[in-house]
Design goal:
2 domains; 6-stranded mixed β-sheet; elongated; Rossmann fold; 32% helix; single chain; 11 strands; alpha/beta; 223 residues
């Protein structure tokens, strides 16, 4: 059985994609996403928005409207679609993480990054700047009694979409005394594999950091 622990709305998107692939997947959300109050800067001080999650557009609040004149550089297609739905224009859609998005911008650019509390560190190119506003927070939830039963049964395969997910899941497994050697992990990237640590029955990384590649890896691991 495949377990998806990411929060909504990504949880349902992953479950739907898994069903379309014929994979038996169930939701076991161990996170909830909460909006944060944040200081809205003057849009005139920036040239573009840098966004690594659709949650930024879902949860940033009414103040987001004042930034619609700034083009969006999005980490991937899901985030880009969220930007378009919120009325923003999208200048660039990445495929390999936000750093790869930044690396493709040659002209000096003043970026406003809308991010979560937990985020990947970035390095701006020479002449460019990144100002960050934290607009949401992903809060971890404990593994419940019913989830423990599910993870102890059969041959569970858990999908990990972030380093934070890997860190929290590993800590919960150890806290509850679950056997790492009985659990397989499919990770969205090498950083997630590294964060998950050792001792798992299997721990593999998708070739590309997106849901399609992760589910393809899960399919391979199930067969």
């Amino acid at each position: 059985m495949i377990f998806v622990i990411r929060p909504e709305p990504g949880l349902q998107a992953t479950l739907q994609s898994a069903r379309e692939r014929g994979l038996a997947a169930v939701g076991l959300p161990l996170f909830e996403v909460m909006p944060l109050s944040w200081d809205l800067p003057d849009a005139a001080e920036f040239d573009a928005l840098l966004v690594g999650s659709a949650n930024a557009f879902r949860l940033a609040g009414a103040g987001l409207a004042s930034l619609k004149g700034l083009p969006v550089h999005a980490v991937g297609e899901v985030t880009a679609n969220a930007a378009r739905s919120a009325g923003f224009s999208v200048e660039q859609v990445g495929e390999g993480g936000l750093q790869a998005v930044l690396d493709k911008v040659s002209a000096p650019t003043r970026f406003l990054r809308l991010a979560g509390v937990e985020r990947v560190p970035l390095e701006a190119s020479e002449g460019s700047t990144i100002t960050t506003r934290e607009v949401y927070e992903v809060r971890a939830l404990p593994i419940t009694g019913s989830a423990q039963v599910s993870l102890r049964a059969g041959d569970p395969l858990v999908l990990l979409h972030s380093a934070a997910a890997a860190r929290h899941f590993a800590a919960e497994v150890d806290r509850l005394g679950l056997d790492r050697a009985a659990i397989r992990l499919a990770c969205i990237g090498p950083r997630v594999v590294q964060t998950a640590g050792e001792g798992w029955a299997a721990c593999e990384s998708a070739p590309q950091p997106n849901d399609d590649a992760l589910l393809a890896l899960a399919s391979d691991m199930c067969h």
